[in-house]
Description:
Elements: H1 3-16, H2 23-47, H3 53-74, H4 88-108, H5 114-135, H6 147-167, H7 169-173, H8 175-195, H9 202-211, H10 216-235, H11 241-268
Helix pairs in contact: 3-4, 3-5, 3-11, 4-5, 6-8, 8-10, 8-11
Amino acid sequence: MGLYEFFYRYFVAPIKYNEGYNAVNTLVYALILGIAVILLYEMLKKMKVRVDERFFLALVPYILLGPLMRSATDLGALPRTYLTVSPGGYFVIASFAIASLFVVWRHVRPGEELYPLYRDFGWVLVGGMLFVMLINWEKFSVRWGYFKYFIPALTISEAFIWLLARKFELVRNNRVIFYTHFYDATTTFVGIQFFGFWEQHVLARWLIDSFGTPAVMYLEKLLIITPVVYILDRLMEEEDPDLINFVKLAIFILGFGPGTRNLLITLLSG
């Protein structure tokens, strides 16, 4: 297999034919993500932008923009191209977020004005995406029955995290991450179990096939997130707190983005 055939088989075809992820592109995308997190952190450090609650709140609209664009694409409101589906779509959103931050930073520099201006620009972009979805509303069909499965499953799963947080400090200190990834697991579970969707990620797909139920997603999340936050909190406690916060922010986005995309696609494709 030549280089072109290899690249086409493992990177182009999965996007072109909606085949989902495979082991090769998953490892490459994970490596790219890791490098991107380090580079973005260094950029923020040079810009003297703190990764704190203010930064997180300002970033919320950009976090929402990713799943909105992806669901709009999957539901036919946007054309399906390499730049509107995963992972290209998330690179596009990240580029918007970085460019917006840089533009705002150039005008106001680090300070109290930076965060609201950056946030408001993000909400403008979200408004634009919602407008695109609104004028294409005929392509959507709300599946109200989704909630009779989603709400009980989410309540039970989040109650489980609440109980763990009461008993274990590690979970309590990172409960937002655990809540978010169990929300993601719930959207996957409900979509596959009750509405005939399928899992795109290679490890999750293998686990579901092996265990015979998408409920295994909860176990997968617990087994992956727990050692990751343990390393961040216990083995890297001497590192820069902003670096730790930024890595946790990336983990949060990896749960919230796909989870919200799953929710919107299942809900609006009735």
